[in-house]
Amino acid sequence: MYKCILVPTDGSEFCKRAIEHAVKLAKLTQAKIVGVTVTFPLHTGTPHMMFPTELRSVIHEQTVKEAAEKLAGLEAAAKAGGVPFETIRKAHDHPWEAIIQVAQEKGCDLIVMASHGRSGVSAVVLGSETQKVLTHSTIPVLVVR
Known about the structure:
The protein has helices spanning 13-29, 53-81, 95-105, 120-126, 129-136; strands at 4-8, 32-39, 85-91, 110-114, 141-144. With 145 residues, the chain is of the alpha/beta class. A five-stranded parallel sheet has the order 3-2-1-4-5, with helices on both faces. Helix 1 links the parallel strand 1 and strand 2. It is globular and about 50 Å long. The two termini are 23 Å apart.
């Protein structure tokens, strides 16, 4: 059925539920899991000249560290479930685009992602990466709440 399942994570509790579901599904279908977290490039919203070279390096290192922490939960769940996996950190201005790109690049046949359940003004202001993936993906998407 499924051979490769993409699981985006931001390290939140909502994503932990999606990870648990994806691991169970991967185990049932003998699929591989590809975990991805998307970070914003340093250039986003701020000119490079505002950051000294040393500060850019520190920010990059911190971003990589935080991404690894976000992916650690997926890695632990996949190992515990005996499911093959790989993890990817992608820098992109639009997380939903990066999620779809990684799914296509890795040949994923399903995306399992969380819905944060925002509604009202917060949903309009913050937007929904899940909604954007649902709207633009040609790959099936399973939303876990």
